[in-house]
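Module 6 notes. Inverse folding takes a fixed backbone as the condition and produces residue identities as the prediction. Think of it as a translation problem where the source language is geometry and the target language is the twenty amino acids. Below is one complete input and output pair. Work through it position by position during the lab.
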Protein backbone atom coordinates (compact mmCIF):
# COMPACT_ATOMS: atom_id res chain seq x y z
CA UNK A 1 0.00 0.00 0.00
CA UNK A 2 1.92 3.06 -1.28
CA UNK A 3 1.81 6.33 0.60
CA UNK A 4 0.28 9.35 -1.11
CA UNK A 5 1.50 11.84 1.43
CA UNK A 6 3.04 11.85 4.87
CA UNK A 7 0.68 13.92 6.97
CA UNK A 8 1.88 13.02 10.44
CA UNK A 9 1.67 16.12 12.59
CA UNK A 10 1.11 15.96 16.34
CA UNK A 11 -1.89 17.71 17.77
CA UNK A 12 -4.55 17.20 20.37
CA UNK A 13 -8.16 16.28 19.96
CA UNK A 14 -10.94 17.65 22.14
CA UNK A 15 -10.20 15.02 24.77
CA UNK A 16 -6.55 16.07 25.10
CA UNK A 17 -5.18 13.00 23.36
CA UNK A 18 -2.96 13.13 20.30
CA UNK A 19 -4.76 12.89 17.00
CA UNK A 20 -3.15 12.58 13.59
CA UNK A 21 -4.18 11.81 10.06
CA UNK A 22 -2.35 10.08 7.26
CA UNK A 23 -3.62 9.54 3.73
CA UNK A 24 -2.65 6.20 2.21
CA UNK A 25 -3.31 5.32 -1.39
CA UNK A 26 -5.28 2.22 -2.20
CA UNK A 27 -4.73 0.22 -5.35
CA UNK A 28 -6.10 2.10 -8.31
CA UNK A 29 -9.10 0.25 -9.79
CA UNK A 30 -15.16 17.44 -7.44
CA UNK A 31 -23.00 29.74 -0.73
CA UNK A 32 -25.85 30.34 0.27
CA UNK A 33 -28.10 27.92 -1.47
CA UNK A 34 -30.44 26.79 1.28
CA UNK A 35 -32.54 28.39 3.96
CA UNK A 36 -29.82 29.32 6.44
CA UNK A 37 -29.09 33.04 6.49
CA UNK A 38 -27.20 34.96 9.15
CA UNK A 39 -28.95 38.23 8.38
CA UNK A 40 -32.14 38.81 10.34
CA UNK A 41 -34.98 40.60 8.55
CA UNK A 42 -36.41 43.24 10.87
CA UNK A 43 -39.91 44.54 10.37
CA UNK A 44 -41.71 46.67 12.90
CA UNK A 45 -45.32 47.79 12.75
CA UNK A 46 -46.20 50.91 14.62
CA UNK A 47 -49.33 52.55 15.91
CA UNK A 48 -49.92 54.76 12.88
CA UNK A 49 -51.36 52.75 9.98
CA UNK A 50 -51.21 54.17 6.48
CA UNK A 51 -54.68 53.76 4.98
CA UNK A 52 -53.58 54.76 1.47
CA UNK A 53 -51.33 51.67 1.20
CA UNK A 54 -53.55 49.14 -0.61
CA UNK A 55 -52.29 45.56 -0.80
CA UNK A 56 -55.21 43.35 -1.75
CA UNK A 57 -54.89 43.73 -5.51
CA UNK A 58 -51.08 43.48 -5.68
CA UNK A 59 -48.69 40.52 -5.77
CA UNK A 60 -47.47 39.57 -2.30
CA UNK A 61 -43.80 40.20 -3.22
CA UNK A 62 -44.54 43.75 -4.36
CA UNK A 63 -46.73 44.36 -1.34
CA UNK A 64 -43.94 43.24 1.02
CA UNK A 65 -41.46 45.54 -0.71
CA UNK A 66 -43.81 48.49 -0.29
CA UNK A 67 -44.36 47.64 3.38
CA UNK A 68 -40.63 47.49 4.03
CA UNK A 69 -40.09 50.81 2.28
CA UNK A 70 -42.85 52.43 4.30
CA UNK A 71 -41.62 50.98 7.60
CA UNK A 72 -38.08 52.14 6.83
CA UNK A 73 -39.39 55.68 6.41
CA UNK A 74 -40.70 55.78 9.99
CA UNK A 75 -38.38 57.83 12.17
CA UNK A 76 -39.81 56.47 15.39
CA UNK A 77 -42.82 54.82 16.91
CA UNK A 78 -44.70 56.63 19.63
CA UNK A 79 -43.97 55.19 23.02
CA UNK A 80 -47.50 55.92 24.15
CA UNK A 81 -49.22 53.09 22.30
CA UNK A 82 -52.95 52.71 22.66
CA UNK A 83 -54.07 49.81 24.89
CA UNK A 84 -53.84 46.49 23.03
CA UNK A 85 -51.26 47.66 20.48
CA UNK A 86 -47.68 46.41 20.38
CA UNK A 87 -44.81 46.45 17.94
CA UNK A 88 -43.82 43.23 16.18
CA UNK A 89 -40.79 41.93 14.31
CA UNK A 90 -39.77 38.65 12.68
CA UNK A 91 -36.64 36.61 13.43
CA UNK A 92 -36.14 33.45 11.31
CA UNK A 93 -34.90 30.28 12.99
CA UNK A 94 -32.37 27.95 11.36
CA UNK A 95 -34.43 24.79 11.23
CA UNK A 96 -33.25 21.98 13.44
CA UNK A 97 -30.33 23.71 15.15
CA UNK A 98 -30.57 23.04 18.87
CA UNK A 99 -29.13 25.77 21.12
CA UNK A 100 -25.90 24.95 22.96
CA UNK A 101 -25.52 21.58 21.22
CA UNK A 102 -23.19 20.26 18.57
CA UNK A 103 -20.02 21.59 16.96
CA UNK A 104 -17.87 20.22 19.77
CA UNK A 105 -14.12 20.66 20.12
CA UNK A 106 -13.43 17.61 17.92
CA UNK A 107 -14.45 19.76 14.91
CA UNK A 108 -11.09 21.48 14.92
CA UNK A 109 -11.39 22.63 11.29
CA UNK A 110 -14.14 25.01 12.42
CA UNK A 111 -12.84 26.15 15.80
CA UNK A 112 -9.13 26.49 15.00
CA UNK A 113 -8.33 26.75 11.27
CA UNK A 114 -4.64 27.35 12.08
CA UNK A 115 -4.24 24.17 14.14
CA UNK A 116 -1.83 21.58 12.68
CA UNK A 117 -4.70 19.10 12.42
CA UNK A 118 -6.73 21.63 10.40
CA UNK A 119 -3.77 21.77 8.02
CA UNK A 120 -3.89 17.98 7.76
CA UNK A 121 -7.53 18.20 6.67
CA UNK A 122 -6.62 20.74 4.00
CA UNK A 123 -3.95 18.35 2.73
CA UNK A 124 -6.48 15.52 2.83
CA UNK A 125 -8.88 17.62 0.76
CA UNK A 126 -6.14 18.27 -1.76
CA UNK A 127 -5.37 14.56 -2.12
CA UNK A 128 -9.04 13.70 -2.61
CA UNK A 129 -9.59 16.52 -5.10
CA UNK A 130 -6.69 15.24 -7.20
CA UNK A 131 -8.48 11.91 -7.54
CA UNK A 132 -11.56 13.65 -8.99
CA UNK A 133 -10.15 15.72 -11.86
CA UNK A 134 -13.55 16.20 -13.46
CA UNK A 135 -14.58 18.62 -10.72
CA UNK A 136 -17.83 18.94 -8.77
CA UNK A 137 -20.30 17.59 -8.02
CA UNK A 138 -18.46 14.92 -6.07
CA UNK A 139 -20.24 12.22 -4.06
CA UNK A 140 -17.95 10.49 -1.56
CA UNK A 141 -18.68 7.60 0.79
CA UNK A 142 -16.76 7.13 4.05
CA UNK A 143 -16.75 3.84 5.94
CA UNK A 144 -14.84 2.77 9.02
CA UNK A 145 -12.76 -0.36 9.38
CA UNK A 146 -14.00 -0.47 12.98
CA UNK A 147 -16.66 1.31 14.98
CA UNK A 148 -14.10 3.50 16.80
CA UNK A 149 -12.09 4.63 13.78
CA UNK A 150 -13.45 8.20 13.91
CA UNK A 151 -15.28 8.18 10.58
CA UNK A 152 -17.90 10.81 11.48
CA UNK A 153 -15.32 13.18 12.96
CA UNK A 154 -13.14 12.87 9.85
CA UNK A 155 -16.10 13.39 7.52
CA UNK A 156 -17.36 16.49 9.34
CA UNK A 157 -13.93 18.12 9.59
CA UNK A 158 -13.41 17.49 5.89
CA UNK A 159 -16.85 18.93 5.08
CA UNK A 160 -16.12 22.03 7.16
CA UNK A 161 -12.78 22.41 5.40
CA UNK A 162 -14.49 22.25 2.02
CA UNK A 163 -17.15 24.77 3.05
CA UNK A 164 -14.53 27.14 4.51
CA UNK A 165 -11.79 26.97 1.87
CA UNK A 166 -13.80 26.49 -1.33
CA UNK A 167 -17.05 28.27 -0.43
CA UNK A 168 -18.70 25.20 -1.93
CA UNK A 169 -22.18 23.82 -1.33
CA UNK A 170 -21.66 20.77 0.89
CA UNK A 171 -24.25 18.21 1.97
CA UNK A 172 -23.41 15.67 4.68
CA UNK A 173 -25.54 12.54 5.11
CA UNK A 174 -25.78 10.06 7.97
CA UNK A 175 -26.31 6.62 6.44
CA UNK A 176 -25.01 4.76 9.50
CA UNK A 177 -28.25 3.35 10.82
CA UNK A 178 -26.44 1.18 13.38
CA UNK A 179 -24.65 4.10 15.07
CA UNK A 180 -26.05 7.45 13.89
CA UNK A 181 -24.10 10.37 15.34
CA UNK A 182 -24.02 13.12 12.75
CA UNK A 183 -27.07 14.97 14.11
CA UNK A 184 -25.68 14.93 17.65
CA UNK A 185 -22.29 16.28 16.53
CA UNK A 186 -23.95 19.11 14.59
CA UNK A 187 -26.62 19.91 17.17
CA UNK A 188 -29.46 18.97 14.84
CA UNK A 189 -32.72 17.10 15.15
CA UNK A 190 -32.38 13.36 14.55
CA UNK A 191 -35.40 13.30 12.28
CA UNK A 192 -37.02 13.39 9.90
CA UNK A 193 -34.01 12.32 7.89
CA UNK A 194 -32.59 9.87 5.39
CA UNK A 195 -34.75 6.91 6.37
CA UNK A 196 -37.93 8.96 6.07
CA UNK A 197 -36.93 10.28 2.63
CA UNK A 198 -36.03 6.83 1.25
CA UNK A 199 -39.27 5.40 2.62
CA UNK A 200 -41.27 8.12 0.85
CA UNK A 201 -42.64 9.49 4.11
CA UNK A 202 -40.94 12.89 3.96
CA UNK A 203 -39.93 15.02 0.95
CA UNK A 204 -36.21 15.78 0.81
CA UNK A 205 -36.60 19.56 1.29
CA UNK A 206 -38.44 18.92 4.56
CA UNK A 207 -35.72 16.60 5.86
CA UNK A 208 -32.61 18.60 4.90
CA UNK A 209 -31.40 20.77 7.78
CA UNK A 210 -29.30 23.90 7.77
CA UNK A 211 -26.22 23.99 10.00
CA UNK A 212 -24.37 26.79 11.72
CA UNK A 213 -21.79 26.71 8.91
CA UNK A 214 -23.07 28.65 5.92
CA UNK A 215 -23.08 26.59 2.71
CA UNK A 216 -23.21 23.29 4.63
CA UNK A 217 -26.42 21.37 5.22
CA UNK A 218 -27.15 17.95 6.67
CA UNK A 219 -29.46 14.96 6.27
CA UNK A 220 -29.66 13.06 9.53
CA UNK A 221 -30.25 9.32 9.84
CA UNK A 222 -33.99 9.71 10.41
CA UNK A 223 -36.50 8.05 12.65
CA UNK A 224 -35.52 4.73 14.15
CA UNK A 225 -37.51 1.75 12.97
CA UNK A 226 -37.90 3.05 9.43
CA UNK A 227 -36.18 0.57 7.09
CA UNK A 228 -33.74 1.81 4.48
CA UNK A 229 -35.17 1.44 0.98
CA UNK A 230 -32.22 0.74 -1.33
CA UNK A 231 -34.26 1.50 -4.43
CA UNK A 232 -34.44 5.14 -3.36
CA UNK A 233 -30.68 5.72 -3.46
CA UNK A 234 -30.19 6.49 -7.20
CA UNK A 235 -32.86 9.22 -7.51
CA UNK A 236 -31.83 10.72 -4.17
CA UNK A 237 -28.18 10.92 -5.19
CA UNK A 238 -29.06 12.48 -8.55
CA UNK A 239 -31.16 15.10 -6.77
CA UNK A 240 -28.34 15.90 -4.36
CA UNK A 241 -25.79 16.11 -7.18
CA UNK A 242 -27.89 18.81 -8.81
CA UNK A 243 -28.05 20.82 -5.57
CA UNK A 244 -24.53 20.35 -4.15
CA UNK A 245 -20.88 20.67 -5.10
CA UNK A 246 -19.85 17.97 -2.62
CA UNK A 247 -21.89 15.20 -0.95
CA UNK A 248 -20.16 13.37 1.91
CA UNK A 249 -21.88 10.23 3.24
CA UNK A 250 -21.19 8.58 6.59
CA UNK A 251 -21.69 4.84 5.99
CA UNK A 252 -21.74 1.89 8.40
CA UNK A 253 -18.52 0.05 9.20
CA UNK A 254 -17.60 -2.44 6.51
CA UNK A 255 -18.62 -5.35 8.71
CA UNK A 256 -22.08 -4.56 7.31
CA UNK A 257 -21.31 -4.51 3.55
CA UNK A 258 -24.86 -5.41 2.57
CA UNK A 259 -25.96 -1.95 3.70
CA UNK A 260 -23.05 -0.08 2.11
CA UNK A 261 -22.76 -1.68 -1.34
CA UNK A 262 -26.04 -0.32 -2.83
CA UNK A 263 -25.04 3.16 -1.69
CA UNK A 264 -21.45 2.79 -2.90
CA UNK A 265 -22.80 2.05 -6.38
CA UNK A 266 -24.23 5.60 -6.45
CA UNK A 267 -20.99 7.31 -5.34
CA UNK A 268 -17.88 8.48 -7.16
CA UNK A 269 -15.38 7.21 -4.61
CA UNK A 270 -15.14 5.37 -1.31
CA UNK A 271 -12.64 6.03 1.50
CA UNK A 272 -11.94 3.81 4.48
CA UNK A 273 -11.13 5.35 7.85
CA UNK A 274 -8.89 3.10 9.95
CA UNK A 275 -6.99 3.49 13.20
CA UNK A 276 -3.21 3.36 12.95
CA UNK A 277 -2.91 0.11 14.96
CA UNK A 278 -5.30 -1.62 12.53
CA UNK A 279 -3.94 -0.20 9.28
CA UNK A 280 -1.34 -2.84 8.43
CA UNK A 281 -2.89 -5.83 10.14
CA UNK A 282 -4.18 -8.86 8.26
CA UNK A 283 -7.73 -7.83 9.16
CA UNK A 284 -7.19 -4.35 7.79
CA UNK A 285 -5.85 -5.72 4.53
CA UNK A 286 -8.77 -8.13 4.23
CA UNK A 287 -11.26 -5.29 4.69
CA UNK A 288 -9.58 -3.29 1.93
CA UNK A 289 -9.66 -6.31 -0.37
CA UNK A 290 -13.32 -6.91 0.43
CA UNK A 291 -14.26 -3.30 -0.36
CA UNK A 292 -12.39 -3.40 -3.66
CA UNK A 293 -13.99 -6.68 -4.68
CA UNK A 294 -17.48 -5.51 -3.73
CA UNK A 295 -17.42 -1.98 -5.14
CA UNK A 296 -14.23 -1.22 -7.08
CA UNK A 297 -14.50 2.32 -5.74
CA UNK A 298 -12.01 2.34 -2.86
CA UNK A 299 -9.64 5.25 -3.56
CA UNK A 300 -7.70 5.51 -0.32
CA UNK A 301 -7.43 4.99 3.42
CA UNK A 302 -7.49 7.75 5.99
CA UNK A 303 -5.47 6.68 9.00
CA UNK A 304 -6.26 8.18 12.40
CA UNK A 305 -4.15 8.12 15.54
CA UNK A 306 -4.76 9.48 19.04
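Target side of the pair, the amino acids:
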Amino acid sequence: MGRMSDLWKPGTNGDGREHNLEVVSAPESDHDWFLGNESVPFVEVGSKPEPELRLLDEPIELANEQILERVASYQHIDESLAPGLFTVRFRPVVAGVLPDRGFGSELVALHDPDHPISEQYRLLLGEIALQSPSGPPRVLLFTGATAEAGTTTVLLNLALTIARTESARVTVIDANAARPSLAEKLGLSSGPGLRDVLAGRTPLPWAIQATRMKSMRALSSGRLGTPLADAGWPPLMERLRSESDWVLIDAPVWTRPAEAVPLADCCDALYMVVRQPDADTTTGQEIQRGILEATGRLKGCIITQR
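Reference fact for the lab report: The two ends are 22 Å apart (CA to CA).
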